Automatic annotation (TrEMBL):
Transmembrane region(s): 6-25, 34-51, 82-103
Membership in a protein family: Belongs to the CPA3 antiporters (TC 2.A.63) subunit C family.
Coiled coil (residue ranges): none
Keyword DNA-binding listed: no
Organism taxonomic ancestry: Bacteria, Pseudomonadati, Pseudomonadota, Alphaproteobacteria, Iodidimonadales
Keywords: Cell membrane, Membrane, Transmembrane, Transmembrane helix
Protein name: Na+/H+ antiporter subunit C
Native source organism of the sequence: Iodidimonas nitroreducens
Subcellular location, record wording: Cell membrane
Cellular component, GO, one term: plasma membrane
Family matches, as InterPro entries: CPA3_antiporter_subunitC, NUOK/Mnh_C1-like
Record membrane topology: Multi-pass membrane protein
Length: 124
């Protein structure tokens, strides 16, 4: 039981993931869908950061004069941080493109509700 509670960051990940997925699937408003997509992305960021932590691990920097054979150390993997930085940039650009599309849809249709836009497309 305590092991499950000790992994609270994975519970938060699952909760955020489900909230984001729910918003993307069920909300008819395009702006709310984008917010759900951002929550979904934040959950993925949390997952990568949670997987990165190595108990007792240090930054992968070898000090001057240290010999790996005589002084073994446990290092944390820096790759997840690099992937998160890249994902943040991609997430920001995706959000800005999505908001630009929402503005353009609002100008063209006068609404940002998915069902109303679909109805207008079918009638024209």
């Amino acid at each position: 039981m305590m092991d499950l509670l000790g992994l609270y960051n994975y519970w938060v990940f699952a909760f955020l993931l489900l909230i984001g997925l729910y918003a993307v699937i069920t909300k008819p408003n395009y702006t709310k869908k984008l917010i759900g997509l951002n929550i979904f992305q934040a959950a993925i960021f949390l997952l990568y950061i949670s997987m990165d932590k190595v108990e007792g691990g240090t930054a992968p920097i070898i000090s001057h004069g240290a010999q790996a054979a005589h002084d073994p150390q446990i290092y944390s993997n820096p790759l997840p941080q690099v992937l998160i930085l890249t994902a943040i940039v991609v997430g920001i650009s995706t959000t800005s493109l999505g908001l630009a599309l929402v503005v353009r849809i609002r100008e063209a249709y006068g609404t940002i509700e998915e069902d109303k836009v679909s109805d207008m497309d079918r009638t024209h």
